[in-house]
Fold these 2 entries.
Entry 1:
Amino acid sequence: MKPEIDPPRDHLDEALIAPGQTLESVTRTISDIPLKHPYPRFWWTGFLVAFALVMLLLTSIAWLFTRGIGIWGVNVPVAWGFAIVNFVWWIGIGHAGTFISAILLLLHQTWRTSINRFTEAMTLFAVACAGLFPILHLGRPQFFFWLLPYPDSMGLWPQFRSPLEWDVFAVGTYATVSVIFWYVGLLPDLATMRDRAVTRFKARIYGLFSLGWRGDARHWVHYQKLYILLAGLAAPLVVSVHTIVGLDFAIAILPGWHSTIFPPYFVAGAIFSGFSMVLTLIIPLRAIYKLQGLITARHLDLMAKVMMATGWIVIYGYLEEFFNAWRSGDIFERFVDVNRAIGPYAGYFWVLMACNVIAPQFLWSRRLRSNVVVLFVVALMVNVGMWIERFVIVVTSLHRDFLPSSWGMFHATFWDYATLAGSVGLFLALLFLFLRFLPAISMTEMRGFVAKKGTDS
Amino acid sequence: MKTSIYGQLAAFPSEESFRAGLLGLQKAGCVQLEAYTPYPIEPPVLRGATTPMAGIMFFAGAAGAAGGYFLQWYGARDYPLNIGGRPLNSWPAFVPITFEMMVLTAALVGVVALCFLAGLPRLHHPVFADPRFRRASQDRFFICLRADDPLYTHEDVRRALADAHPESIAEVSA
Amino acid sequence: MESPHQPTAAPATPDFWRSLDERALTPEFHERLVREFPFVATLAPSELDRRHFVKLMGASIALAGMTGCVRRSVDKIVPYVVAPETAIPGRPDYYATAMTVEGFARGIVVDSHEGRPTKIEGNPDHPESLGATDAITQAAILSLYDPDRSRGPRSKAGTGDWAAFESEWAKHQGALLTAQGEGLALLIEPTSSPSLRRELQRILEHFPKARWYQHTPLAAYETGGVQADYDFAQADVILTIGSDCLYRHPAALRYSRAFAGRRRVENGRVRMNRFYALESTPTVTGTLADFRLPASPARMRVVLNAIALAIAHNPPSAGDLSPAEMNFVRALADDLRQHAPAVVCIAGAEEDADIQRWALALNAHSGAGGKTVRFLASQRSDSDRASAGDLTALGGAMRRGEVTRLFILGSNPVYTAPADLDFAGLLSKIAFSVHHGSHADETAALCTWHLPESHWLETWGDLRAYDGTATILQPLIERLFDTRSSLEILRLLTAPPGTQAYDMVHETWQHESSGSDFDVHWSRWLNAGVVDGSAAPAIAGPAVDGSFPVLTPPTTEASPVLILQPDATILDGRWANNAWLQELPKPLTQLVWDNAALVSPAFASRLGIASGDLLALSVGLQTLDAAAWIMPGQADDCITLSLGYGRTAAGSVGTGRGFDAYRLRTTEALWRRSGLQVRKIGGRYALVTTQQHFSMEGRDLVRVVPPDALSVPPPVANPTLYPAWKSSGYAWGMSIDLSTCLGCNACIVACQAENNIAVVGKDQVARGRQMHWIRVDTYFEGDPANPRVVHQPVPCMQCENAPCELVCPVGATTHSSEGLNDMVYNRCVGTRYCSNNCPYKVRRFNFFDLRPSPDALSILQQNPNVTVRERGVMEKCTYCVQRINAARITAEKEDRPIRDGEIKTACQQACPAEAIVFGNLADPESKVSRRKREPTNYLLLEDLNTRPRTTYLAKVRHPAGGTAS
């Protein structure tokens, strides 16, 4: 997929793990984080902040269910607002994990080893946040289950032609498969945790979840096959999910949505935002938990390159949209693009351009790229930019469509912002719990990596 | 009376010595061998270690896809409605869900298959009794010659195991 | 007699009434009643005597879901067309009656479910309705159930009841008799009611020295006791001078129908008239014109003088006319010469007297008299010899202390009096003043007594239409509250209490009618809703020869002129508490819940005014702050503000909205005031509209064709891969004629009344959450100073390839075999994707719970055949599916297919111009099929291949600036 991240192997290995790491050392370094709980002050402050935001989320949801969707800024013509924007944003972030674990595994990108566990966890939590919004944004959320195919007493079934129905299956499958993939990968590490646990209680809990894994050579054979096949399934799955999210819009006849470029360009955008989120989280974490030995500058460098590559696919998507609008000669399509650039929401559009188009270009320079601060800021900007991109797609297309008589404006309310902030809190809170109780890097794969290095040299 | 023996459990500090020991025993004709490693060893050194996983997941996936399409086809037929003038069997619109169902079924069946094939969950196992075994999930490699092996008590076998210079060797009781 | 509702002799009083009373009096029933309908409980007097209780029952029994008979008035009322021996629960009955439009009758048929009037339709047999209604008529039903209506008499002291008032009045009565009524004054609105006028006569005989004055804040439709009446069907050239005669006029519905007949394409042909409009501020009528010229009151006089000269072959000198004015004058003069006498010239009732005379002169000069213009004796009491004059006269009398006892009936002078009169001050000095009205309004607050007035659907009465046709008003429902009609109040002045309006109306008509078998006539009149042969004969017009009065422009040319006009929806403020009318977008501005100072684009740019800026308007001694609205087509140098807003005691809906234009009004200058000072005071005011963008952006939405090239590209069947669904039996469809659509918005309210559509309030409309199922889009094209205006009603298009259906994940919106795009409320989960994917944006979403609370009085109005939608579900136009099914049931019982025209959608039934036609497309001979075969037929957004069942007929209009053909 990306030839530039395939330099000579020895150099790669050197960069991917600090010298002097042994089976024992990697295992200790990684398992000590959950077992010994270092840096408690950082953890507690971080967790409590996140937890406060979770409370805000619950408050918003309670008020939403009490009063109705009207507490948000949505209206006619702009019947979709923050809820859908947030959904697409989170599901996009949720793509990096599976991409890194599955696709890079299939591509034999060994550098994924030290980050895949963490990104998979990130995926799960992002998908959890994403999954909230389609239900919250329903006018009658109490009936969300009508979207599920169950034998209804009146013989009613969901309307399978609707992209929203595809979403139900896509997101549902994606969440399930991600959990499976993550858990299967975690299995041997849970055994390690069991065996390193200091207290009997912890040993039992970890033992329980490790299902009594013993590292039996025969089990490893089944395990290896299952893992590679799951990767083989997850790879097309991850592409399909955001393709379908793209179709949510592309299937509609609305100018600004009705476009065949959407699926590929949504997938690229998803990975783009996913990698930026990984960087945003990993750069501080590796500094705080002193993991530079395992997550090296080389990793950051490679992720930065992936960001640039996917970023350019996204830029191509932007250009393609404008070109198609102009080429088609469709006055409605043309108007949408002009309206985005100079209409009432032009501000959003230009911030989007600054974040997604301009900012990543700084990473061409190796010097800037290797500067973690610059990298962190760029990643942060891309996160913001990708949220705004979804806002621009959803709102500016809706607010001025075919009949000028029904044009309108969307103004977000306090509860729109509260729900967004709350979902970020939920995401962080889950991440903190993950760091606290589970190995953030796959010890098994690191051991295999160390061993291979031993044999190679 | 004498407690029954599960087997001889030998610990090796490195992958090489472990491989040597295993090859020795297999050459000596041992069959009831078990090996434990902290990470998957490539290529598998234990004889006859193969897996039907691929076949199982393929058929699961196929069934999932078929079921997924049938679900939609049946849903449209069971309660026929004119939706935007589209035909009842709108097959292009049914593709995405068909695909998702394929992936979902294959993945779920795969995990169940792993548990079934590996006999998991199994929270108790004789080798766990050996305190050394805790490092099997960290940085030690173990070979277990089970007591029910016909050659268990044979002299050559003991020698073969010893020649591999294990870090330590001891019997585990069943 | 205990109950005021039972005439002494009422043989027709059904037996169940008694049994009901008995039932009503059982305590457990009362207990249940109160539990279910708290608002009744609030009215409940401490100790329940029978008489009170019967009235309490009124507000509640319909809700109690008991058989409808009980709510029907006990007097002898006769249903429209078919008279059911007994009402069948579930089947509505129809009664013909009339409502008052500025004192004149408009014949209506009221739809009554289980004794609850729920919907007002036009009476096809009535000359001033012809089956159609306007927006106000449609909304009137809501006022019957207005919770703010006063529910009992109230003295200034505090509480009070009828008995207390009657006893107090008895004392005054004695005193007055000796004084021959000296000091007694009555103030009523000009009325056409024979019974009322007869009663007034009676009072004057009784109290020779009593005086009755008349007051309405609105203009009279007569000059010197003579009404002009026009025949738009025969007019080839029409000139309106500041007149909105097709929208707001006692005969507007008849005029619209006739006018539409001359703009409608039938079988590819149209007998087009040529319509010129000269006006200062855009009116619904004026914007329909082929040639419209905006002119400030000053310029208007110049232009009219020029026209007068041009007709007499004196070409106007280019010096004093702008090019636009010159073209207008030339073209008009040519047309007038060519088409005389088939000419109609009508000046707005608010225009100055000399302009009125000018219009009469033009008609006379063209020889239109007796052909397109005829004259009738004034049907309203404005210039009744017996009347002592208008409010100014009364004010004078009060100032001179000649008035000691004052009765104000059905009018609200404290709010509507000109500012310089200080009526409030004068009124507070009157020793004994009585206000009789439906609400405890601004005037009631200052009177010794406030007496609640019965709604006209609750009592007997009579009215004459603009053309003289009389109608007997029959009550549709028992009085909801302890109220009386104005007839009964007037009778109270001279007679002991207890006389019923029924008896008074009955005896009036016994006098009128020629003796024999009166009762047969009587019931026929009630049945048909018109007193046959009562139309007024034409009389000789006012003595005007064809010579035009020379109009002198006002002196103060420099400063802008203030123009006051009745509000488009709430008129003079009398409808201010009607939520439907408040939320009804006002034609042309689409403003809701407010009035605004309309300024021309040029004027706005000169003063740097943006819509919503607050302006200080000061003229003479009066000043008022009002928000500005930039109105394309508004004449320069004049600012228009509509009456009716800024009320302080209108009720929960109407109080404290908008700006009180009466404060700028003087007795001298009621409608036009020059010398206006305008100043931006900074600060903004939230003006809310249902439409924010008035340009078509060059999109092919409303097609306009000239009368000599009647065709548009015919719809083509776009290619498709889908196999066609065959529709079984009926295929419902609609055709909307943009050529005849007036943009009067009657259809919007009709739909609202029929389909239980909620009102959301100003702030929600500001958020874009109005619920109207049909909207009337307005687009301005061309020069903002004088744009071409087009209107486009947009209901659900009922697309055959409906985009909304495809994207619903639960199949909550699907297609019926007859082509309806059905919305299944119960299945809707509220993803709102359907609305996003609707290119016409006709879907409406319940963002909040908009259902009326179970104890709301307005719930009585709701149509039992239409589901009330809950929070979180989508809703939209259904083609009035409940009416389709009702017709289907009838047809199946009679074992026949549904006849063409048997089903009328609510919007279609209301439309005065018959612009909307609904029917079966499967029948090639149906009216709708024929219309869709017209050469001007086209589909909105055809390229999307949504295949809408609702299609449009292009607007036919003479090209702008065109000269005589």
Note: The first helix of chain C runs from residue 15 to 25.
Entry 2:
Amino acid sequence: MSFFPYVVAVWLFVIGLYGIVTSRNFVHLVICLAVLQSSTYVLLLSIGYRVGGTAPVFAGVRVGTPAVDPVVQALMLTDIVVEATVVALLLALALQLQKHTNTLDPDKLKALEG
Amino acid sequence: MSALAPLPVVIPLSAAAILSALNKFLSRRWADALAILATIATGLICGELLLQARTQPVIHWFGGWTPRAGVALGISFVIDPMGAGAAVFTSLLVLAALVFSLHYFQTVGTLFHVLMLGFLGAMCGFTLTGDLFNLFVFFELMSASAFALCGYKVEEPESMQGALNFAITNTVGAFLVLSGIGLLYGRTGALNMAQIGRTLGGNLDGLVITAFVFIMAGFFIKAAVIPFHFWLADAHAVAPTPVCVLFSGIMVELGIYAVLRVYWTIFDGPFAAHRWEIRGLLLALGSITAVVGAVMCFGQRHIKRLLAFSTISHVGLLTIGFGLLKASALAGVALYVVGHGMVKAALFLVAGLLLHRFSSVDELELHGRARELRATSVVFFAAALGLASMPGFATFRGESAMIDAAGEIGQGWVRAIFFFSGLLTAAAVLRVWGRVFRGMGKGEGAETAGDKKIKEDRETSQPSHGIPAAMFLPAAVLVLLAIATGLTPGLKRAARTAATVMQDRAGYQARVLEHAWVPVTPAEEEHTPMGKGVVWSLATTAAALGLAFLSLSRYWPAKHALVRPVALTVRGLRSIHSGHIGDYVAFLTFGVAAFGVVLAALVHLH
Amino acid sequence: MKRSPRIVFFLLSVAGFAGVYLWGLTGLPAVGHYRGPYGDVLNQVATYERHVTDVVTAVNFDYRGFDTLGEEFILFMSVVGGTVLLRRQREEDKSEHRDQNLSDKSPERQAPEPSDATRVLTLALVGPLVVFGLYIVAHGQLTPGGGFQGGVVLATAPLLVYLAGDLKKFKQITSHTLVEIGEALGAFGYLAIGLAGLILGGAYLRNVAALGTTGTITSGGTIALIDLATGLEVAAGFVLLLYAFLEQTLEIRLRGGK
């Protein structure tokens, strides 16, 4: 069981990539990208986890009790903000694409060949 | 600790925040002025930091958190000559782009300037940082600004598609990098590059290899190395001119910079016994990139796309320079980046000028129309010669340094790659020059492998009848600077000093973790004979001119039997570049997997 | 490439990719056995040195505060980028009946009116939501929370107004210039606090404010101040983003698109 979270991280990355490669709708594709990003969350948090550790918040808890790693949690917060902002930008692009070409299907866009 | 160190990031970002607050109140003139002022200030401070870094790298611990017993608690900026030099160069190019967009470029209130300043601040932070996660954060900040700037022309659907392709591939790359960082953190418990390097020591195992592959691949996506390069041509075809200047001039090269920085501070320890394998892999990757980029470049008729593929080809050359893993080659890389960035920026600026004046960037449609633009013609021609690495340009200095270094370790065959790349890319640009500025060759109806005509919207307000000085001057100045840096004595030596500092892992760790005073030792004077390099470069330039004029003349054997297999290969290559995001990500996955499997196999067979 | 060859090519590649990734992961310590020094050192010293009980916030805004500055500006640039990408274009500006069309009565283009229950409930929740958001922002250094989390909660308050069906009010709230200024102020505030650290303490983002007593709302020095600036920036930024998206979605709906 102590390797399983890592397998989940790999699986999320892989399935996200699969979704992007086979997608027929840009909004769906962006959500697959978000799934890919959540693979890094699982990876980071699994790395920082300590069995029997408490949250790294010492309100009412004595300093020195074993706690999980606060650094990966801080990294994750940054990661989430990055994901949210990238998704926002991509959705804005997809929205404008839909408005101009009336399609969100990558297969139907032929403008950038060669 | 130097108080100047955080300023290259703080000044552009402050200016961006202020401009954004005054979005609805500030006139165009004030916005331009403030943005340009902030950029100049940043450039000057980076220059001062460069001077300070030449004696001893400048280190700044944010929040005052200096390391305790070798454990870094905070984030540091470690400013060595290479990083500071890159930051100065970035400021220069952003300045050129902002001057170009003066007055005519259609901006959205102050928001174009906000995005450009954010881009500048991010790139400066990227080059100066000494913390791996901080590198990722600035990488993402750079990307966020870049995605928005790429999709700037919202009225063209191709813009949206190009920006989407760019954004999706680069985001996958960023998360590859983050996964690699996670792996390293799990092993070493540190995010500071010096500390990671020290903790890893010299042990190489599966985790280090995988982290290496992921981080390198992620940055290679940004650098547009094959097979991660597909997004670049699309992005350049649709982005506005000042943005293309920055993409090709510095953003892509920063991918290579990151690879260099991470390799020399972290991975050189574990891979020290396997340098031969790394070298082989990188030289192969670089050569393929250089060749494919050059071939694709020659067949384009969209001027910006043509220049984009030539950037890809030159990034291949930079990868070769990196792959040699020698200080003299690294010095060559630095010089080549500077020289190439300047001439490429000048070429893009001229393309933007043509777009402004004639509403087109189609080579065939512009046939002969720029005949009256004498001064611009000279600038374009000179920049094309710079692409061929003619002696006198900084590109020549960089190239000869890299080739000499290759010769010293028995890899002299890379000279052929440099020749091929220089030949085709310069010939393509010279062909454009001949057709557009001299009216040579044919206009519409000329043989180019089955293209449709290019339609590109204007990005500036009303066409003018002269050439606005603000658009012409940056291009001219950049070409002059490219020549100046090609001729200034002592620059090669300074580059070698910077390279040696960058490669000095032990010194880096001592300076950062122990506050040690390890002064920079200047490199010795070098007395390599220049003869062979000069001859080859002149030959490349002459051959490029010959090929360009040949392709414009009626003797161009487009349908000859001998040329058939070449034409078929080219057509095959072009069909792979389909514009489809699924294809791009499939190739990306293949690239990462192949890189990983091959490297793992090579290491284990050693 | 055609679809099937692409999928086959991809599946082969991703198998290799997954293999490499899993092989690399075997080098990590087992999950639950975190070893590294960084987190442990911070857990030991953060409360003592900075008088805060939430170590994650201390890491975010003090020890690694420069990262968070970058992250805040990623959000800032993305909001600006979103505004640029979703901007009104020339043809759209010309349509004079835009605002009237918001309450377009034609049945095909009208979203269904929210029910009375929805309206009452959402409007009743706006107040508590704002208070809750402010609470999370202000208590960042004591309990899990902080500027980012609280800011997002605050940003959803105008969204409730939209859900209640009051489009005009929503547009009024979200398109106000104060929102733009607030966002820029929050971003600049972070930079300025850092500069204060540089001027007064010799290092950028040094914690130079009074540290207060652990466990009170005024503890943490600059951590609390940065928290507030970040909360303002995030809330304003997301509100701007919501507004930009809404404008364009309405535009698409007006044109009869999906």
Note: Chain B has two domains: 1-130, 131-443+465-515+526-554+561-605.
